[in-house]
Design the sequence.
């Protein structure tokens, strides 16, 4: 446990010192400089004015970390199919489990989910725990939380990974709060230390900074990860590991929620699944010019995505937005057309395998992440590119 | 009917840069504003009030000047506001924030519905809402994109899932987090600004809360700790092409062919 101490007598300029904190967490109370509720413990003040601010650790009774074993992955599923993010998390869990010599567990809950659970044995899970109950057919928060709680009490995993899907983002915080433990959302890097502490790195502050977070004195350690951040392991022909059926009594599965209907959204293949993406940026002068982007995407067998300004303008559907407040994509190829490369956008696409950026401004930020930086006007480059691609086809 | 909305003050700009050597922010955010996603939460509450005669209360946890967002909520039609502030809340992570808020909400009196924004632009975890619901032991629904109906006993909402929409009827009291497609937020009204200029903001501090164990709040109540912050890594391997547009188009076509994309 750590805190920041303010050495009042070392303050030279009482007005200036308050400005060291970008989060406005410094203020005077009865003439004394204090850290208020806005403090994020980012230590910026300590770095800037070490004579005034001191970071001290005081020790609290430590928990017994050895009492918690295994890395558990929550298996998200839609209509009987495993959500691919869950497989990616199994991959990550296996990688970390080797380093601390722990098993990898999967938690599957739902109605008639046995076959799906069995499929997980092709991906290297050591043990798959199944809660199969008709009450779990639809996602409703209280029964799902109760099952998760039951699982954690039974298995005592040190780390729990949950996909950042709608269900995952609703369920993980609820379960973490029930165990009064930490949860780090949308991690982009995960690693484990020998003492089983999880190193979690996530973008914060709109993606402008990365924060390295840990949960030193609580178990289990919860993290959510979005789809396409990690790689999915190969499916092996042979099965390994075992299935364990679990029971939970009906009284825990009562819910104050009644699912009335599940409507399909208009079927738009999601950009997360596309191998090739062409992104239209704010450089487009009018809505009709999207046709050029569509044509290019078609020629490459890809999908069109856009930056936020185009969605705000109403030209494109919000599901086509890439970025921090949109989707995270990891295609084999992404071509950005007239996109400046704001950090919020880049956060959603910088793990693409190949990034080609077309922008007329040689200083555009997108070029910092592009493998091929093409300094040119999209209205000249793209029509010629399409023409040339057509030639290849013929 | 009582509706409580959780709102937060966030830095006014997201344009921060870090000095790579020192790990210190180069530029400070100039001003603070209401978390944009919370405007949708307030709008939702005010619409329900117009329809159902509800009382809309807002709560924020933050430093004393976070009062500004409560004043703004008044200008949009909120009736009561509460600022949860105390230096004991400093350094709170999601769990400690949600806990303090759940204590503050209880302190503010009865509630039938709690509305949170989808996420904040500084923390952007989207976790505070569900954790508040857990502490208050009420059901919650995240990503609500439409409200069909509300009555004394329950609310019918549409939850936005990736590929589908789930329509759920939830018994009150409950908590929802709302998507930004839900309603277009109104602008603060000048008339309400004048009318509410002297409306007080209730201040709740640590000593007003039921649970007075300091270990449950702020830094002590936060299981997660930030070890360090650093700028995102730039990609160093890159090739720059310049030239006339036509040439570039051709060169790119050749490149795509070479890379087997055509
Ligand atoms: C909390 C937060 C979350 C956000 N989340 C997202 C998000 O998820 N996704 C997102 O996209 N944005 C997001 N944004 C917005 C983001 O900051 C940028 O505003 C946005 O990405 C910019 O889009 P753009 O690059 O298309 O437009 P601009 O920044 O306007 O860039 C247009 C670019 O086109 C170039 N250009 C102009 N004409 C031509 C031409 N003829 N040929 C070639 N190049 C040309 C210009 O040089 C410029 O670089 C978020 C912002 C915040 C604060
Ligand atoms: N300090 C706070 N005070 C009041 N409400 C908050 C606070 N932090 C978060 N919230 C609420 O929780 C939602 C999600 O926040 P977050 O988990 O930080 O993304 C916000 O949109 C607010 O409705």
Sequence:
């Amino acid at each position: 446990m750590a805190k920041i101490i303010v050495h009042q007598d070392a303050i030279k300029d009482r007005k200036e010192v308050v400005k060291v904190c970008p989060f406005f967490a410094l203020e005077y109370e009865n003439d004394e400089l204090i850290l208020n509720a806005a403090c994020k413990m980012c230590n910026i003040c300590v770095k800037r004015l070490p004579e005034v601010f001191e970071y001290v650790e005081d020790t609290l009774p430590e928990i017994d970390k050895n009492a918690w074993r295994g890395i558990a992955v929550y298996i998200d599923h839609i209509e009987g199919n495993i959500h691919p993010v869950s497989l990616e998390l199994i991959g990550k869990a296996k990688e970390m489990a080797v380093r601390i010599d722990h098993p990898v567990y999967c938690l599957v809950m739902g109605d008639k989910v046995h076959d799906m659970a069995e499929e997980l044995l092709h991906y290297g899970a050591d043990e798959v725990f199944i809660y199969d109950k008709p009450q779990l057919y639809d996602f409703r928060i209280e029964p799902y939380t109760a099952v998760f709680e039951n699982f954690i009490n039974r298995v005592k995993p040190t780390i729990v990974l949950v996909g950042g899907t709608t269900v995952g983002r609703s369920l993980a915080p609820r379960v973490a709060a029930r165990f009064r433990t930490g949860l780090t959302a949308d991690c982009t890097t995960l690693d484990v230390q020998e003492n089983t502490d999880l190193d979690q790195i996530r973008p914060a502050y709109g993606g402008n900074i990365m924060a390295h977070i840990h949960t030193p004195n609580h178990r289990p350690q919860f993290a959510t990860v979005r789809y396409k951040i990690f790689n999915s392991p190969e499916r092996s022909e042979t099965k390994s590991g075992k299935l364990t059926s679990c029971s939970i009594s009906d009284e825990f599965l009562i819910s104050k929620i009644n699912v009335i209907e599940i409507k399909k959204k208009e079927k738009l293949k999601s950009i997360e699944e596309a191998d090739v993406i062409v992104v239209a940026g704010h450089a487009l002068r009018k809505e009709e010019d999207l046709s050029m982007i569509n044509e290019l995407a078609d020629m490459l067998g890809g999908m069109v995505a856009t930056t936020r300004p185009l969605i705000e303008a109403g030209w494109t559907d919000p599901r086509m937005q890439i970025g921090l407040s949109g989707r995270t994509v990891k295609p084999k190829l992404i071509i950005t057309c007239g996109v400046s490369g704001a950090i919020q956008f880049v956060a959603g696409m910088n793990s693409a395998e190949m990034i080609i950026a077309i922008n007329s401004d040689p200083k555009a930020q997108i070029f910092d992440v592009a493998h091929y930086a093409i300094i040119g006007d999209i209205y000249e480059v793209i029509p010629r590119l399409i023409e040339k691609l057509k030639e290849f086809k013929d | 009917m009582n509706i409580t909305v959780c709102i937060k003050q966030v830095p006014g700009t997201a344009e921060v840069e870090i000095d790579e050597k020192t790990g210190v922010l180069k530029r400070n955010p100039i001003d603070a504003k209401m978390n944009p996603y919370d405007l949708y939460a307030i709008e939702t509450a005010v619409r329900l009030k117009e329809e159902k005669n509800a009382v809309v209360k807002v709560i924020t946890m933050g430093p004393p000047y976070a009062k500004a967002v409560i004043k703004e909520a008044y200008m949009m039609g909120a009736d009561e506001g509460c600022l949860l502030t105390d230096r004991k809340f400093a350094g709170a992570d999601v769990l400690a924030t949600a806990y303090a808020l759940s204590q503050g909400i209880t302190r503010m009196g009865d509630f039938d519905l709690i509305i949170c924004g989808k996420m904040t632009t500084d923390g952007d975890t989207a976790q505070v809402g569900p954790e508040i619901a857990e502490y208050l032991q009420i059901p919650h629904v995240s990503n609500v994109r439409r409200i069909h109906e509300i009555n004394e006993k329950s609310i019918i909402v549409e939850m936005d899932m990736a590929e589908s929409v789930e329509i759920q009827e939830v018994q009150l009291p409950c908590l929802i987090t709302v998507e930004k497609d839900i309603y277009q937020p109104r602008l603060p009204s000048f008339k309400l600004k004048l009318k509410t200029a002297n409306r007080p903001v209730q201040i709740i501090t640590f000593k007003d809360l039921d649970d007075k164990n300091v270990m449950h709040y702020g830094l002590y109540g936060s299981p997660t700790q930030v070890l360090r912050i650093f700028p995102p890594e730039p990609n160093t391997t890159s090739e720059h092409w310049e030239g006339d547009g036509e040439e570039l188009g051709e060169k790119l076509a050749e490149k795509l062919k070479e890379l087997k994309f055509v």
In short: Chain B touches chain A through 104 residues (CB under 8 Å).
